[in-house]
Amino acid sequence: MAVISLRGERREGLGKGGARKARAAGHIPGIVYGHGDTPLPVQITARDFEVALRKHEGGNVIVNLAVSGSEVTALIRAVQYDPINHDILHLDFQHISLTETVEVDVTVHLVGTAVGVKDGGGILETIMRNIKVRCLPTAIPPHLDLDVSALNIGESLHVRDLKVTDVTILSDPDATVATVVAPSVEEAPVVAEPTAEPTAAEPEVITKGKKDEEGEAEGKDKEPKAKEKK
User: pLDDT over 90 for what percent of the chain?
Assistant: First the structure.
């Protein structure tokens, strides 16, 4: 891996206020730490940073950082982006030695078209996208290739299937990296059979009491009147 030359300067303004001033002036605020050194606040011209990294491949960047007349070799450990406009907000530089190993995450690239996808209509799923490795800084690979061409439906590739040189893989060797699953089958919707609408119950007409009352009333009216004595 090539080491990129980058120039910066010591950042005087600290805290959120100092970082905002640096960004307003066209700089990216950052911090250099590690190797037993006192953390050093720095700022890098945004334009210079973009130009320096334009041709870099991979996620791990090693820079030869010149700050205030001194130079340090550093690994860019973190890049913080603005979630709205994606501008770089902050950089973390870890001071390293090119003769000492480091631990980094490396992206996995799946290569080829799985036979289970091509001939069986399966779906290739990526389970792990990054693998942790240990190696010398100059031996950090830009990515790790994994050939999935022979994968059939129901088959998987694991960390142990990665072919690497000059690096030690630290991730679990039995962890699944990629697998081919059968295509999902959509079940036909179940249509419920129509059911007869319930017949409305006929209201019960209670008339007995009324008839009895009417009958009693009629009976009283029809009682013969007593004959008057002459």
Answer: 61
